[in-house]
Amino acid sequence: MKLLITGGAGFIGSNFIRYYLKNHPNDQIVNLDKLTYAGNLENLKDIENNSNYKFVKGDICDFDLVNKLVGEVDAIINFAAETHVDRSIIDSGDFVKTNIEGTRTLLDAAKLNGNKRFHHVSTDEVFGSLGPEDKAFNEKTPYDPRSPYSASKAASDHLVRSYYHSFGLPITISNCSNNYGPYQFPEKLIPLFVTNLIEGKKVPVYGDGLNVRDWIHVDDHNRGVDLILHNGKIGETYCLGGASEKTNLEITEFILNEFGQGEEMIEYVKDRAGHDRRYAVDFSKIKKELDWQPRIKFEDGLRQTVEWYKNNQQWWKKIKSGEYKDYYKKQYEER
Ligand code: NAD
Ligand code: TYD
Questions:
Q1: What is the CA(261)–ligand 1 centre distance, in A?
Q2: Residue 171 CA, ligand 2 centroid: distance in Å
Q3: Relative to the alpha carbon of 137, which ligand is closest?
Q4: Residue nearest to ligand 2 atom 9, measured at CA
Q5: How far does the centroid of ligand 2 lie from the alpha carbon of residue 133, in Å?
Q6: Is 253 exposed, middle or buried (0-12, 13-18, 19+ CB in 10 A)?
């Protein structure tokens, strides 16, 4: 099988490519990535010379390029997206372009090339925000996105489903909860906090720190995507979660503890606009149908992830220097 992976130079996509080539040594992967601020070929340094792997720099909105690449593969997995909620609040332009228009471009190419198999990687954030007593999201939960990021992902999910109903495109969708693991860009909660502490800086907790996320290790997510690609039912959506609901303060305390640091390293900062209170995912459908459930215990996975950031300072120090820092400084000042 030959796969087109989009966004494979980002956090989840790069971990997926590594996972997939290891577990399917006879398959081939073409990685199409625009290399935005979040795309980094260093994430794939160890496999860049693998004969079953090829990188193409390009935009998923570029129809001619996408059409050519789709024509050469058996299936497409769409990881490419603008992904950071805070950035979407500052400027949603690229979110609409990549997440909506880019997905449409890929869908059209898949349709025009004989209805190619299409898996779309999405998020639990499309379902909105839960109260403390609400039941976890499942595949039947109505969409209620509340940030420009989640709204653009919701739109892309709807488009993907519409190509199944209108054209019989063989699609599947996965809606997964918050991922953590190696190579995550240090703007997201866990890598930002870990790298700040290595640098001796405080960690910025938004609001009261009691927002809840359902954390899953990126390898558990990617094992699910692989299973859905090969064994998922066409036209279906699968919700994936980590069975690890934690408040941001619980995460913060765990990480502080790993560094032998205390609460004095916490800086409470202004809350995110429209900050979703709680996400939680009921993954019983994929458990029942595909025998999938998360395997990596949160505490073990997070400890390993902290170690990874300690041992790979070269990787994130380059990212956190210069322009990146200025961008965030300005952002914090404006909030
Ligand atoms: P990321 O921001 O780390 O990586 C995104 C990648 O997409 C980057 O390599 C970037 O260069 C590329 N990209 C962006 N725009 C592009 C374009 N127009 N054309 C081609 N490539 C482009 O994101 P991630 O955390 O790895 O997320 C991957 C996917 O998983 C996204 O679709 C996201 O919505 C979804 N998801 C993420 C999480 C999470 O917790 N990170 C959870 C559930 C679902
Ligand atoms: P994030 O990693 O941005 O993921 P998402 O918003 O997609 O869930 O944020 C996770 C949680 O951590 C979210 O409730 C916002 C919070 N947060 C902070 O408190 N401080 C920070 O500096 C960041 C980046 C996030």
A1: 32
A2: 30
A3: 1
A4: 189
A5: 21
A6: middle
Give the model's confidence band at 329: pLDDT under 50 very low, under 70 low, under 90 confident, else very high.
very low
The label of the residue with tokens 């260093």 reads 42
9 Cβ neighbours under 8 A, 6+ residues apart: 31, 33, 35, 39, 40, 41, 43, 44, 55
* Confidence at residue 334, expressed as pLDDT on a 0 to 100 scale: 52
Ligand index nearest the alpha carbon of residue 106: 1
Model confidence at 335: pLDDT above 80: no
* Number of domains observed in the structure of the chain: 1
Q: Which domain holds residue 174?
A: 2-334
Residue-wise pLDDT tens digits, 55-66? 999 999 999 999
Domain at 220, CATH number: 3.40.50.720
Torsion of CA 88, 89, 92, 95, to 10 degrees: 20
- Whether 248 is in the pocket of ligand 2, judged by its Cβ within 6 Å, is yes
